[in-house]
């Protein structure tokens, strides 16, 4: 898509994400007694609303009660349950707006600083669902720096790290807030190289968002990246990782052409991503993948080679 993504693609991607959250929410709640539809029970108390057996979609009054409970209690068990309930309800677009209008985003956002790692994770998950709404992102962006610090300083492959990476990925679906990650690009590559398979995939999703924006191209190429990055282009690498690192190269190359940087190259230092991607070793690895067993990988490599 080159520079800024088309509005249609962005809307479709966010809608699919909300739909996936809805499916997960329904599957984890169980069937209601009596087989009735999504009736509302305004008489429920705030703590009742955190009961795992309560499977209705909350209305504005109930969400307000829940937010008050979350803000006023210091009981970690209640806080965690309230965040789970809010996160599940934030999977619905109407509630994403209501929670924002009720002032719920800063109430949830404050919990990412909690010392309890499980509470921190649940708060990040709730913010992640809320961030599907573009208007909500305007309020959530103030937490980006804190989320980045937690992602890169916390335990590798932890639930908090993955939750933070998912939130950052949602926040960079459009180009609006990508510049806020400029100082963390090298850290992203470090986590990519040291994390497990799930962490690698999540970091690559985030990097792919950045790589489609020409305004982020120089920052990506200036990043200091260990030479072991090139091992991700080996034929034995898992397909879900290999296809993404190939797409990363493809996106960056496309952006360079759009910006005319191939004709007038900025000064990149040795050890930068530029030196790795445009060195002979990387070229050899990509050429070798033409013979890969997987048709999708071969197709991606052919497309890249035609444009180099």
Automatic annotation (TrEMBL):
One of its GO terms (cellular component) is mitochondrial outer membrane. Keywords: Endoplasmic reticulum, Growth regulation, Membrane, Mitochondrion, Mitochondrion outer membrane, Phosphoprotein, Transmembrane, Transmembrane helix. InterPro entries: ARM-like, ARM-rpt_dom, ARM-type_fold, Armcx_regulator. Residues 58-277 form the Armadillo repeat-containing domain. It comes from the Eukaryota. The chain crosses the membrane at residues 6-25. SUPFAM superfamilies: ARM repeat. It is a single-pass membrane protein. It is found in: Endoplasmic reticulum membrane; Mitochondrion outer membrane. One of its GO terms (biological process) is negative regulation of intrinsic apoptotic signaling pathway by p53 class mediator. PANTHER family: ARMADILLO REPEAT CONTAINING PROTEIN (PTHR15712), ARMADILLO REPEAT-CONTAINING PROTEIN 10 (PTHR15712:SF19). May play a role in cell survival and cell growth. May suppress the transcriptional activity of p53/TP53. Interacts with the DNA-binding domain of p53/TP53. This is Armadillo repeat-containing protein 10. It comes from Aotus nancymaae.
